[in-house]
Design goal:
alpha+beta; TATA-Binding Protein; 4 domains; four-stranded mixed β-sheet
Length: about 475
């Protein structure tokens, strides 16, 4: 139990409580407070037992709230973020968010990093851009009026930030209402070679195909499946869809490119840590997001405890079995309802284990039945999304962190137990053996709040630069 406390292992929260006799406080195992010495620790099976021993609850981790299923600090931060997203213009700067929260600036920064993997400034910027996108599509207002409505201090700041995170000018974004093609600008250090590697990692895929600089994929938009075609260049990506909404397609392309990830900040952090070799030759590397959350969920279940090649084979067979032909020899990913209608006996001849097939079908049934809302997950706090996903049978820490990183866009995730991560850490840090889960957590901690990007770099560390 003391080892779990030292590791800040959240999976043991509630299984026991840690009493610190010198301070008279009891905590959760994952409490972020300074770790006590072993001789000062006593363990308790419940909060009641700790209180009976004369201890009082920690004001940092709130063990009593956790024990009864409440989390008032998290709920307060979630309510604050909801307010910022709904009315970003009412928050002129980060100081106004701090005043509204009731916390000190240091504590609020810590809570935002913990629960949203972002600083208050980043949350505010994304809220403003979200509001601006809504107004651009819903009105004919001038760009200055849109900028003011979203809370931007000037038209130039609005234009710069909008283009940086969307790859389009505000005017070009508004034009998506009527078109089916658009061109997304890439930054000067964008590593297109690594993008090709990500898009073409399964050369036999039946959902996507990469040939040179031409990429085609079968995607699902709100109107149904369609074909997405991308043409890659050093400084831009041109996109075209066969049918449907270019606005929806743009969101998918931004995710594929990882445009809203702060790759430059992570590169600076790596160099500051004396680990510039991790980002050498790929400082602009991003985590390429899956086209849909369901796509990532399938990967996270299929890819458990097997190598990438076999995972690709299983996914192809599932898509051929339950997907929808779109054209050009490509299939759209099956819907949750289509997977929910399968039987374990249908997947076993495709080399799915009975357990993996059960997990896939059971999870798809929960989605199709409305118990699990995939569309809501990206808007949740990282803490709430993680708790929601961990409650699903068949999803463990590796699967949940993989899904949060590759489909929900959270910036501070580590797929614990991932062979690519542990092999990368061993090579990067010249360790005698690959680190276990606890050591992986410890070795990855200095990369926070960019551990998702650290993971992406570790996956590529021993591979040749494309």
């Amino acid at each position: 139990m003391y080892d779990r406390v030292l590791a800040s292992d959240a999976s043991f929260n509630g299984r026991f409580f840690t009493g610190v006799l010198t301070t008279g406080i009891y905590c959760l195992p994952a409490c972020k407070a300074r770790k006590p010495k072993r001789e000062n620790v006593q363990f308790f099976p419940s909060c009641e037992a700790a209180r009976s021993a004369g201890l009082r609850p920690c004001k940092k981790c709130h063990p009593d709230d956790f024990a009864r299923g409440a989390d008032p600090v998290l709920e307060g931060i979630e309510a604050l973020v909801t307010e910022v997203r709904a009315r970003p213009a009412e928050f002129p700067d980060v100081r106004s968010i701090v005043r509204r929260s009731g916390f000190g600036s240091t504590r609020l920064f810590e809570l935002f990093r913990q629960h949203y993997h972002a600083s208050p400034a980043e949350v505010l910027l994304r809220a403003r851009l979200g509001r601006a996108r809504e107004r651009l599509l819903a009105s004919e207002e001038g760009l200055l009026a849109v900028a003011n409505d979203a809370g931007f201090e000037s038209a130039s700041v609005f234009h710069e930030q909008f283009r940086r995170l969307n790859g389009l000018t505000p005017a070009a974004y508004r034009a998506l209402r009527t078109g089916r093609s658009f061109t997304v600008a890439l930054g000067p250090e964008y590593p297109v070679g690594y993008l090709r590697r990500a898009l073409g990692r399964d050369g036999a895929s039946v959902t996507e195909r990469l040939s040179g600089n031409a990429y085609r994929a079968a995607i699902r938009l709100s109107h149904g499946p369609t074909l997405l075609a991308l043409t890659l260049a050093a400084d831009r990506v041109t996109a075209e869809i066969a049918s449907g909404s270019a606005v929806e397609a743009h969101a998918i392309v931004v995710g594929l490119l990882g445009l809203d990830q702060d790759a430059a900040a992570f590169a600076r952090l790596a160099r500051k840590l004396g680990l510039g070799r991790l980002v050498q030759g790929r400082a602009g590397l991003r985590v390429s997001q899956t086209p849909s959350v369901f796509d990532g969920l399938l990967w996270s279940i299929i890819g458990q405890q097997i190598n990438l090649g076999f995972a690709c084979t299983l996914k192809r067979r599932l898509v051929e079995r339950a997907g929808e032909p779109v054209g050009d020899g490509l299939f759209a990913l099956p819907t949750p309802a289509a997977v929910a209608g399968l039987r374990v006996a249908e997947l076993q001849p495709l080399q799915f284990s009975a357990r993996k097939a059960e997990y896939l079908i059971h999870t798809a049934q929960r989605i199709a039945g409305g118990e699990l809302d995939l569309t809501a997950l990206p808007r949740l706090s990282a803490t709430r999304a993680e708790r929601t996903l961990l409650a699903i049978r068949g999803l463990g820490p590796w699967s949940v962190n993989y899904l949060m990183m590759r489909s929900l866009g959270f910036a501070d995730c580590v797929p614990l137990g991932d062979t690519g991560v542990t092999s990368g850490l061993q090579a990067l840090l010249k360790l005698e053996q690959r680190p276990d889960v606890d050591e992986t957590q410890r070795r990855m901690r200095p990369f926070s709040p960019y551990r998702s990007l650290a993971t992406a770099h570790l996956w590529q560390y021993e591979k040749p630069i494309p």
